[in-house]
Design a protein that fits this description.
With 471 residues, the chain is of the alpha/beta class. The chain has two domains: 5-248 and 448-470, Aldehyde Dehydrogenase, Chain A, domain 1 (3-Layer(aba) Sandwich), CATH 3.40.605; 252-437, Aldehyde Dehydrogenase, Chain A, domain 2 (3-Layer(aba) Sandwich). It contains 16 helices and 24 strands. It has helices spanning 37-49, 51-56, 59-75, 77-88, 92-115, 155-166, 180-192, 208-216, 229-238, 262-274, 294-306, 326-341, 370-373, 389-397, 412-421, 455-461, and strands at residues 5-7, 10-12, 17-21, 28-33, 119-121, 133-140, 143-147, 170-174, 201-203, 222-226, 243-247, 252-256, 284-290, 345-346, 352-353, 356-357, 360-363, 380-386, 401-402, 404-408, 426-429, 445-446, 449-450, 463-470. The chain has a seven-stranded mixed beta sheet, sandwiched between helices. The protein is globular, with a radius of gyration of 23 Å.
């Protein structure tokens, strides 16, 4: 099926098309029109022209809009899950979960906006002040440029569109080239809703040229980007004076204390390391294990990993399908072989078949190896032996990334230390660092990005405060 451009509420196409092939079967699963700077500028101009109508629309209309989209997305759950699996190879069971989460994200954005408000201010609180009627209100920033990745091609679009539109903004979306049809079908629900604000949402397709035109334009007042550090760096330098939110990935780590429930830790670490083939910004990559329990835990983790079914993403019981492309699978294989040459010990079979790279547990890894110090974005997890949390904490923090960390422990004081001392946007106690609830603030420190997602926190970043004084 073909995706189409949305120039506001009007569909369009170009003379050229790109094909998206399934990373599992290699078959063509979708097509998208080729866009460039001209199409991007046109979409931006339409979004700018629609700003006034979007801002003037009532909150009741915008909330009804989002609830309508959520209901229709829920009704087409199986169809949308299949499109996700076709385009990015995500196992169908997890694609269904992604649709469910997107429904919740859209619903949550509507319900959150209903309760967001300004505050009155006591201007006579200081000697230099005096009594007035003073308050602040929230207003939409205007036009937002949204750029989304392949690993959650529906829910991450929802995390940008729903907060932006319910706050009264207009949006130009550039979805990942790997999943154009997913984004198109979702955007179509917004555009065709009877509650839609006319021309509030545009969708263009492409890569560097489209992204550069979107980010470099003076029309958007905010750019919301999820993707790689190199691209995030380019956006920061070229965006100019506008709001920018960047979610740039990470190198998630956990510490397994000797007091921890090792069976629970092994089960959750296997899930956190290998869900979505490790292609998650908060995918568990580094496990620092107390020396007293190191070998026991390593064996338990290897045993849990062998239970995971790798195969066709269309089978209901498949846990792990393909990586996004051959290049990603080859890179993962090369990194593992390099680590083995440097002294790492594989705890599971090293197996690659095309885009399929089987879940891999590596023991005796050192901090200098690429599979530890770089973001692998693949189903590889590394075990590092340490002498307690005193050694683990600085080594976990010794990373340019700081998205999410976790610890497994039954020591309350150690849990509190982890919360205080780990340098990350999120800390999880007694679960994988891959744990994320869409209602929470989500984002990192250092190279993991700037700003926060989660409907309430995205709305805050997609609005401006206006201070009012009535003297």
């Amino acid at each position: 099926m073909d995706a189409k451009i949305f120039f506001g509420s009007s569909e369009a196409q170009t003379q050229q098309w790109t094909q998206r092939r399934s990373p599992y079967s290699g078959e063509v699963v979708s097509r998208a029109p080729v866009c460039g700077a001209a199409e991007t500028v046109k979409a931006l101009e339409i979004a700018a022209a629609a700003r006034a109508a979007a801002k003037a629309s009532t909150l009741s209309q915008r909330c009804s809009w989002l609830h309508d989209v959520a209901a229709k997305l829920r009704d087409m759950k199986e169809e949308m899950a299949r499109i996700i699996t076709d385009e990015v190879g995500k196992p169908i069971a997890f694609s269904r979960v992604e649709v469910d989460r997107a429904v919740e994200t859209v619903t949550l954005a509507a319900e959150t906006m209903r309760t967001m408000h300004g505050e009155t201010i006591n201007t006579d609180a200081m000697p230099s002040g005096r009594k007035t009627t003073a308050f602040f209100i929230r207003e939409p920033v205007g036009v937002i440029g949204a750029i989304t990745p392949f690993n959650f091609p529906l829910n991450l679009v929802a995390h940008k569109l729903a907060p932006a539109l319910v706050a009264g903004n207009t949006v130009v979306l550039k979805p990942t080239p790997e999943a154009p049809l997913t984004a198109y079908r979702f955007a179509k629900l917004f555009v065709e809703s009877p509650y839609a604000v006319k021309d509030a949402l545009s969708v263009v397709y492409g890569d560097a040229e489209v992204g550069a035109a979107l980010v470099g334009s003076d029309i958007p007042r905010k750019i919301s980007f999820t993707g790689s550090v190199p691209v995030g760096n380019i956006i920061t330098k070229s965006a100019g004076i506008k709001k920018v939110s960047l979610e740039l990935g990470g190198n998630a780590a956990t510490f397994v204390d000797k007091s921890a429930d090792l069976d629970l830790a092994a089960q959750r670490c296997a899930l956190g390391a290998f869900v979505n083939s490790g292609q998650v910004c908060i995918s568990l990559q580094r496990i620092y294990v107390d020396a007293e329990i190191y070998e026991t835990f390593a064996q338990k983790l290897a045993d849990e990993t062998r239970k995971l079914k790798v195969g066709s993403p269309y089978d209901d019981d498949t846990f792990m399908g393909p990586l996004i492309n051959e290049e990603a699978a080859e890179r993962a294989y090369t990194w593992v072989q390099s680590a083995i040459e440097e002294g790492a010990r594989p705890m599971t079979e090293i197996k690659r078949e095309g885009t399929m790279f089987h879940p891999t547990v590596m023991a005796d890894v050192t901090d200098e190896m690429a599979i530890v110090c770089e973001e692998v974005f693949a189903p590889i997890v590394s075990l590092v032996k340490v002498d307690g949390f005193d050694e683990a904490c600085p080594r976990m923090n010794d990373s340019p990334y700081g998205l999410q960390f976790s610890v497994f422990t039954n020591d309350l004081k150690l849990a509190q230390r982890a919360i205080d001392e780990l340098e990350a946007g999120g800390v999880v106690i007694n679960d994988m660092p891959t744990l994320r609830f869409d209602i929470q603030p989500y984002g990192g420190v250092k190279l993991s990005g700037v700003g926060r997602e989660g409907p309430r926190f995205a709305i805050e970043e997609m609005t401006e405060l206006k201070s009012v004084v009535i003297a």
